Amino acid sequence: LEAELWSSMSLQELLFECGARRVVPDAALFGSAAHQVADLVQRLLLNAWAPALEAAGVPARRFLVAPPAAPAAAGAVSEGPLALAAALATRYKCFEDMSDDTLVAECRRLGLAPCADRVSMFQDLRAAALWAALPLPELRRECRARNVAPWRPPPSAGFQPSDRCGREDAINRLVVELCADWYEARGVPARRLGSARSAASLLERRERLRVLDGAELQLEFMSAGFPLEFGLDDDGIRQRLQFASLWRLLPYAELRKECQ
User: Fold this and answer.
1) What is the pLDDT of residues 190-219, one digit of tens each?
2) pTM: predicted TM-score of the whole model, two decimal places
3) Could you give the C-alpha distances from 228 to 205, 208, 223, 224, 235, in angstroms and in order?
């Protein structure tokens, strides 16, 4: 009922409603009156639902930094921060309902640390889901809070990354930092790889090579394009294959460091 009421109000009426409910409008908002109305309706709705969402662990008010992508049609409210926060609450509930095996599988899918501790996996999955939902300004705040430096092209590159690229990079770096210590304790240089999924792939590859020996290992060696060397034992073959696996996954800048 409140959504229908607020959607039918004028811009001035909505501003008065926001003042009465101590909802702060976006001072930087610009565009058509319909766009501003849509933003105020979203803020009022999210303010009304914030206590319930925050009880579910969702920092609802962090979604208010970005206006909705498009104005609402007459009599309707566009998808915006409330929809994002509600979807995140649903995602959190899915994690709670997962079995231990399903949590492990979900962590592996995202490249997170699939540890035996259910609480740690649950917390990591919630963090990754939050970052995937947050608007870019909040992602940047998260990076600063965790001392995660975003990638920036050198001045000579002559371009700046788009907001979409900035979001993807920030999410990726946050996820890597979340699980880097776990991977590096197992010999996988996650920070150099710059990708949690790459780190998971390299660890899986190393675990597979560890159980191969003799003819199987030699076949793997030749399949990778290496010539068999006289006197090269299984450990030597395994080491070369591990190096090759790492080099295939390293970003270009890290490959250059490896060559120097």
Assistant:
1) 999 999 999 999 999 999 999 988 889 889
2) 0.78
3) 20, 20, 11, 11, 13
Q: Which of 63, 111, 68 is nearest to 87 (CA)?
A: 63
Strand, helix or coil at 59?
coil
Residue 95 and residue 125: Cα distance in Å, rounded? 8
Residue 48 phi, psi (nearest 5)? -70, -35
Give the separation between CA 72 and CA 39, rounded to whole angstroms: 9
Buried b (16+ CB within 10 A) or exposed e, 124-146: bbbbbbbbbbbbeebbbebbeee
Helix (H) or strand (E) holding 3: helix 2-7
The Cβ of residue 253 has, within 10 Å, a number of other Cβ atoms equal to 10
Give the sign of the dihedral formed by CA 237, CA 238, CA 243, CA 248. positive
Both structure tokens of 6: 């607020």
> Coil, helix or strand for 154?
coil
Place of tokens 């909802």: 23
Taking the C-alpha atoms of residue 234 and residue 224, their distance in angstroms, rounded to an integer, is 15
Half-sphere exposure for 163 (CA within 13 Å, toward CB): 7
Residues 6+ apart with CB under 8 A from 164: none
| Radius of gyration for the alpha carbons in the chain, expressed in angstroms and rounded | 24
